[in-house]
Amino acid sequence: MIEDKWYDCLIDSLYERYPKRIHLVNELMNLLHLEREAVYRRLRKDVLFTMHEVVKIASKWNISLDELIGVNMGSVSFQMRQVNYLDPSEKELQFLRNIIQSLAYLKNFPDTEFMDISNKLPRQLVAGFQHLNQYYLFKWTYQYGTEKETVPYSETFISEEQIQLTKDYYRTIKLVPNSNFIWDRRLFDYLVTDIQYFHSIHLITDEEKELIKNDLYALLDYMLEVAIKGCYPETQNKVNLYISQLNVDTNYSYTFTPKANVCYIHVFEKYEIHTFNPEMTANFRTWMQLKKRTSVQISEVDEKRRIEFFTKQRQLIDGL
Fold it and tell me: Which residue, 149, 126, 170, is CA-closest to 270?
């Protein structure tokens, strides 16, 4: 048997991306053009992946070779996977499918925990509301798209496959056994101000603004139900909702499982940089948990603050 620690780390990284062995084997067969038994021998460590194969795997799945071989010189490598949400390639669509597949697998681990700290609505929640989801894609296109001309909300195209993947993501994220959300107390204030701006420059029509507004009311109703019950009503999986008393400067999240951990810093609206580095994910988890000290929990407990918060958000949306 091969005892090289870096090789063990490589194998662990592969299983982080494809937790089910059969899926991992199939992906490696296609990527490396190997027979099934040849892949199994490499996963059993009977033989090594060749250097060419390691480089190809690392390049395909954004695995840091520095971290694998331990030459990080005290630094941590973060990676970013770009996705063209306007016109995703088949490769990018498969990447999104893999995320959904990985989330579905997490339901098998009751200690799994997801946590998100945000100053904008998390995509885990936005994904369930068609017009709100389209608004965030429109906003991303306006700010970071490569189109020569500004694309109004009405022309922000989402394919049927993307719509289905978004629905699958919204359904699957609720399978995570434990979820925590910490929201900036002015989150809805920021959102309403942005929508009003786009409406003022005629990129969102009166009718479209009303559709987004109705989605915001529906989201508030849903999150109020979640906050009262302390769980997703569809799956009964635990949800804790907090309101930060200090401003949140950007969006952070982590996923913790007994098998693998990952932390994210969300950038450019719909991208994130991430790392699987164990030390960094452990620090991330500690730092984010400390954020609860300056936050108020409004799920299950503190009914007075919960009512006050949701009433205020409705009043903000009324002003749209």
Answer: 126
CA atoms within 13 A on the CB side of 162: 17
Alpha-carbon gap, residue 238 to 198, rounded angstroms: 36
Contacts of 141 (CB under 8 A, 6+ apart): 86, 147, 151, 156
Q: How far apart are CA 15 and CA 9, in angstroms?
A: 10
Q: Is the pLDDT of residue 21 over 50?
A: yes
pLDDT at 63 over 90: no
CA distance 229 to 222: 11
CATH class of 5-69: mainly alpha
Q: Minimal CA–CA distance to 27: which of 2, 60, 51?
A: 60
Residue pair 313/188 in contact (Cβ under 8 Å)? The answer is yes
- Which positions ≥6 away from 309 have C-beta within 8 Å? 243, 298
Q: Show me where the domains of the chain are located.
A: 5-69, 80-318
80-115 tens-digit pLDDT: 666 677 777 787 788 788 778 878 888 888 888 888
